[in-house]
Amino acid sequence: MSNNEIAFFVGLFGSVHCIGMCGPLAFAIPVTSAGFWLLVWDKLVYNLGRVVSYSLLGLVTGLLGRQFWLFGLQQYISIFSGILIILAALARLVRYPLTRGRMMSVLLSPFNKLISYALKNKAGHFIIGILNGFLPCGFVYLALLGSVNTGTLSGGVQYMFYFGIGTIPLMLAATIGAGSLNLKVRKRLNAIVPYFMLLLGIWFILRGLSLDIPYLSPQAQVGGVNVCH
């Protein structure tokens, strides 16, 4: 499975979380167009705004990842990312609140003010989507860890782009249907997410260990040349 395919599935599974966190904001944006297809267009534009933000974040992490690769640190970064993802998955399984408390409130405050200002001044779905994409979010951080591991500028952007595309199906369905995904379905999907995260974390660690296992743990590359142990 390629990096971009993994990014898509991270976005798809993570969007269950997005519906709970970002869904209310999407519902709050006034709909200026009459008719079903115009509503679909408005909500699609909102989601595309988020994809733009994620891609810009990927530009930054891709650049950072490139520096790590130039210094030959890609294996260590991959292992470190895997450990963080596994810890986050375990925290979800034991229901440990990683994103609550005063610190998160401080982080969210400037974004909430910006979004409130945008809503008050009828900035439109695309602009609000862009602002929403920069909101502090655990699953976005998870995706950013993946984008760092691509090791290239374009790879980081593509990874976050496909992550954003992955979040669209469920978010679009939820915003069009005003929460059409019922609570029971969301709970079942949420229950799967930590296990997906565990598998992803294990994969990052295996890739960092360079065990010469095709697809799972290929040999490390420096300047495009395999490093043999």
Percent of residues in helical segments?
over 70%
Q: Taking Cα atoms only, what radius of gyration do you get, to the nearest Å?
A: 19 Å
Number of domains: 1
Give the SSE order as H and E letters. HHHHHHHHHEE
- Main sheet characteristics: 2 strands, antiparallel
Relevant terms:
two-stranded antiparallel sheet, disordered C terminus, 2 strands, mainly alpha, 2% strand, 229 residues
Q: What's the SSE blueprint?
A:
Layout: H1 3-21, H2 23-28, H3 36-70, H4 74-93, H5 102-120, H6 125-133, H7 138-148, H8 153-176, H9 183-209, E1 221-222, E2 225-226
Antiparallel strand pairs: 1-2
Helix pairs in contact: 1-7, 1-8, 1-9, 3-6, 3-7, 3-8, 4-7, 4-9, 5-6, 7-8
Please characterize this protein's 3D structure:
The structure is a single chain. The protein is an all-alpha fold and 229 residues long. The chain has one domain (3-226). 74% of the residues lie in helices and 2% in strands. The protein has 9 helices and 2 strands; from the N terminus they run H-H-H-H-H-H-H-H-H-E-E. It has helices at 3-21, 23-28, 36-70, 74-93, 102-120, 125-133, 138-148, 153-176, 183-209; strands spanning 221-222, 225-226. A two-stranded antiparallel sheet has the order 1-2.
